[in-house]
Each structure stands twice: as structure tokens, then as C-alpha cells.
Write a structure and sequence with these properties.
Distance between the termini: 70 Å
Helix content: 10-25%
Number of helices: 9
Radius of gyration: 25 Å
Number of domains: 3
CATH class of the largest domain: Alpha Beta
CATH topology of the largest domain: DNA primase, PRIM domain
CATH superfamily of the largest domain: DNA primase, PRIM domain
Structural class: alpha+beta
Shape: elongated
Amino acid sequence: MPATAEQSLAEYRTKRDFRKTAEPAPEVPIPKHKRAIFVVQEHHASKLHYDFRLEYDGVLKSWAVPREPSMDPADKRLAVQVEDHPIPYARFEGTIPRGQYGAGEVHIWDRGTFELAPGAATFGSGLAAGKVEFVLHGEKLKGRFTLVRMKGRGDKNWLLIKGRDQFANSGGGNGKPAAKPATDPRRKPVVSRPAGTAPDEIELTNGDRVWFPEDGITKRDVYRFYEAIADRLIPFLRDRPVTLERLPGGIGPGQPHFWQKHTPEHYPGWIQRVDFPTERGRSVQYVLVNDERTLLYLVNQGTLTFHPWLSRVSDPDRPDFVLFDLDPGPASFADAVTVAKELRRHLDHEGVTGVPKTSGKAGLHVLVAWTGKGGFDEAREWARSVAERVAEALPELATVEIRKAKRGRRVYVDTLQNAKGHHAVPPYVIRPVAGAPVSMPLAWDELTPRLRPGQFTLRTALRRLSRQKSDPIARLLKSFRK
């Protein structure tokens, strides 16, 4: 007897902990499709590959394709068959967390419907015989394709081959050579033009959903906080590629938690994107959070924390500021305060002003405007040299040792985030831990043994800011405008 969908998904289930990954569990209801669907997901795991999936018999039959699928019949792509996936996986985009099977970022590269090619064997017979012929109706992949099992290479190794038809990009198809995509990683990012008009007001949906169960904080509370803080936060997001940390069900065991770089196509056209080239010649469409409506739209989509680049799209190779991340680990927060004050002493010696802030979790950040010559490499080297001097001055309290096992109970002065493409936690965002703590800028005289890492929260931050006579981070913000 053929295996049921539940039996087919047994391997998928055993490889994943659905309390930690946002991938759909096998129990997720199966959507009904009038026509069978296919999806190709670009998967940035330990090695970049493309997951090619075809709907059949209640599951997605799946192959890992190491190289981008091609519309050229001359390009025979290796396709390694992997475990079946549940059909709702066709909608999955996000980040599979570290430590989980297939850890890395996933976004949809192409999708559509398909049917068996005219005259082809049934899908099941084709799988058994080692040859499945079908016609794809996608945005990138169109026309006839064949999956052929490779002889003498085991049952899992197949070839994905484009058929010679009117859609083929080859001399044998339409007489035109294949158009090769631009692969120059030095090309500048392209900012999209808004398509359509943003609504006057962003509608909040499911506002009563509890996002912080221990604190009774709802999605509406988070939305209202970001609405109130927008004028302070947006200057740290404007014109920067932003990675979104999304928790559409809030925090807690079993809730989806993923990181989104690539902007889904279904987001409205008035949401600005920047098409950013990668070193592989491909691109990621980061969202640009340049106004309050975009900010609130993304919150309504489940974004809890915004993580911008340290540079702007106008000059992506040069950071606006340098970040020192003081991570206490097993050390006390009071030790992190002591290290921060030592760091200030070294910055003052160099004639540089630093601004401290709580990270919103366990540590402290110190931000410094980058006014030196050069870009990220030079900024990171300078930051590293300062961090090393701090560690030399406080050998019992501070370290620049990357390996946790060798840090002991010392505060790690981390400068590795000062690199192109890395993101940072800006001021005023909420962090996804109990209490809804907020990353809060501080005056140096507030760094005392009484300071607690999570004392500024969604419920206390606005009151603090309303009483503030001067903004400690205003000077740093001015440097961004130059």
C-alpha cells in the first residue's frame, strides 16, 4: 500500500523541533488547491542551495538543487531528493534558528502551479521509474521540465532539465542566447520607487493577541508604543537595509520566531525596498523603514524588533558609526558598567565621544560616530584596537576572546558586528524577552551599580523620555545627517 501523507512526513518530523523553528508542523491544515503547486525556496544554509518542491499525494516531494534552476536546456542541474515536506511549507519564508536542521535563511525564489507533461507517465509511476515530466507555470520557471534519476548514483540523485520549448533560453529553444544576470557584486543598490499611495492610517489586526504572556502585553500595546516612539526611532532606520525580527504570535515556547531580510512580494507597493547585491551576484530586497506608516505596517505583520545596517544605501561601504557590544555572559551587569566606563576613558583619550545604551537584554552598547578615513575594514580595526586596550587595562574583567570557553567570567568586548551587511540593535526598539525591555540611550552618569539591564520597558520608556531634559544620543544622530 502507498504511504499516507502522515507516514511520508515522519522523517520531516523527526528532524525538527517545532518549539524552536517556525517551519510548519505536519499537523498544519493542508490548503486545497485546484491545481497542483510547486515552489522553489532559496535556502542560505551552510551552503546556498535551492529547494525544489512539487505537490503530490498530500505532500511536497522535494529536491535540493545546489545551483540556481535554469531555463537553458543545456544546463543539467543536480537535484538531490530529500524528505517530503508538508504542503503548507510552500508558504514558508524566514530563518531556521541555529542548532536546528537546515539552519539559515529561507525565502521564496519562485512559485506557481504545474501539471504533468502531455503523454507523460503518472507522477507516482514516474517517481518509481526515475523520470517525471511536467510543465511549470511560475514567474521565473515556465514550460516543460524533466526530473531524471541518475544511473549508478543511488536513488536520491536526479537531474533537473529544462525542456526545449518556446520558453527555453537557448539556441535550441527560441533561437536566442540565454540572458545572463548581472553578477557584479560592486553594483550599487537600487531603491524602488513607491508604487501606489500609502493609506492614511494602518489598520491594526488582532490587537488583543497577547505578545508577552507573563506581562499581559498585547499586540496593540506594542503597536501603540511604536506609534509613540516613531519620531525617535525612524532616524536610526531611515535609508538603511533593515532585517526584521518577526514573532507574529508573540514570545513564548512554540511561537514562530524568524528573521526576515527579503521583502515578500505580497507586501504593498508603497513599502519601499532596496535591491541589494550579494557577493554571489544575486540580490536581497531589504525593506526601508523611512516613515511611520511603514513602521506600523511591519509591526502589524508581526515585527517586534528592527535591526538596521550600520551604513546607509547611499554609501553602503562606509558605516555611520561604530558599535562596541559589551556582553557580560556569566559576569555581572555591574562588571559591564565598569568596562563601559573604562572604554569611555580610552575614547576620551582619542578625542571621540561615545554614547552608551542598554542593549535591551543583558548587556550594554556604546555607539561612536565614525569620522575616520576608510570604510568598514578600517572602522572595525580601529574598534578592535580600542577594545584590546580596554582588555589590557582590565584583564580580570574584560576580554576580546571570541571563544566563550576561554572568556571565563569576563565581559566580552565585541567589535565583530562592524562589518558590511551586519546589523545592529538601534535605540528605542523592543526586545523579544519577558518584560518587553527597550534599548535605551543613557547619559554616562547613569551608569552606576544601581542600573539594571531591563529596567527600561515598553511600560516605562515613554514616561522616562517625557521627563528627559536632554537627549543623550542627539549628538550622534546629528552625525548621520552629514
